[in-house]
Amino acid sequence: MNTLPAPEISVTVNLDPRTSPGFVRSLFPLANGAPPAAASADPRNDQIVMTFLAAYYEINVRWMELRAVRSRPAAPGFLDQERATLQAIETALRQRDELEDLYAPHGIIAEPILEEGIARDILFTFGSVNAAGLFRAQPIVSSANLSFHVPEKNRRLGVKPPGPPPSNATTLFPCAD
Questions:
Q1: pLDDT in tens, 113-160
Q2: Rounded alpha-carbon distances, angstroms, from residue 76 to 72, 79, 82, 88, 96
Q3: How far apart are CA 93 and CA 167, in angstroms?
Q4: Is the pLDDT of residue 1 over 60?
Q5: Ranges of each domain in the chain
Q6: What does the alpha-carbon distance between residue 92 and residue 57 come to, in Å, rounded to a whole number?
Q7: What is the pTM for the complete model shown?
Q8: Are the C-beta atoms of 23 and 67 separated by less than 8 Å?
Q9: Confidence class of residue 40 from pLDDT cuts 50, 70 and 90?
Q10: Please, what is the end-to-end C-alpha distance for the chain in angstroms?
Q11: Residue 54 confidence class, pLDDT cut points 50, 70, 90
């Protein structure tokens, strides 16, 4: 079984911002339309969900800071404040991008639902399992048998495929003697 990587990103993220001082509940997104579950069938999924929610909460907080700074364009040091806030947003977006890059190869997708620039809900897809860790469907396995006709003029005498043929091979190699 392919194990999931630990949610390690280059910049430290509070994995549960709800416990930090100054937490703003209205900026914390929902997970699949509801508050994050206390425990599901797969605790790894819970950890991944919370990591993404924390990343989007950070983006939301930084976005609100930018809106506050831009509401005072005549304030002294406006350009420096705006630049610092934009850099903080960029850092939060890079953290989110690193999480996406880390989990996308495993079929884990976090799709934000935005409202006025704020992520209100994150829709999670966990590849072949749902958020509770239950399989969506039975795996499908298929095979194919391909045959190619090689014209006589393209056949090479004495050429054999590399390596020994598999014990259950039924394929014929018309290009070989």
A1: 999 999 999 998 887 665 555 666 666 677 777 777 777 777 777 667
A2: 9, 8, 11, 20, 32
A3: 53
A4: no
A5: 17-126
A6: 9
A7: 0.67
A8: no
A9: low
A10: 42
A11: very high
Taking the mean position of all CA atoms in its chain, how far away is CA 4? 11
CA distances from 133 to 43, 47, 68, 101, 116 (A): 9, 12, 40, 21, 32
Q: Residue with structure tokens 């990103």?
A: 9
Can you give the pLDDT at residue 177? 43
Residues whose CB is less than 8 angstroms from the CB of residue 30 and which lie 6 or more positions away in sequence, other chains included: 120, 121, 122
Distance (Å, whole) CA 83 – CA 131 = 38
Tokens representing 149 are: 């006709």
Task: Dig out the tokens for 65 from the structure.
Answer: 């800071």
DSSP string, 74-122: TSTTHHHHHHHHHHHHHHHHHHHHHHHHHHGGGTEEEEEEEETTEEEEE
What is the Rg, in whole angstroms, of the alpha carbon atoms belonging to the chain? Answer: 26
Report the interhelical angle of 78-103 vs 43-70 (nearest 10°).
160
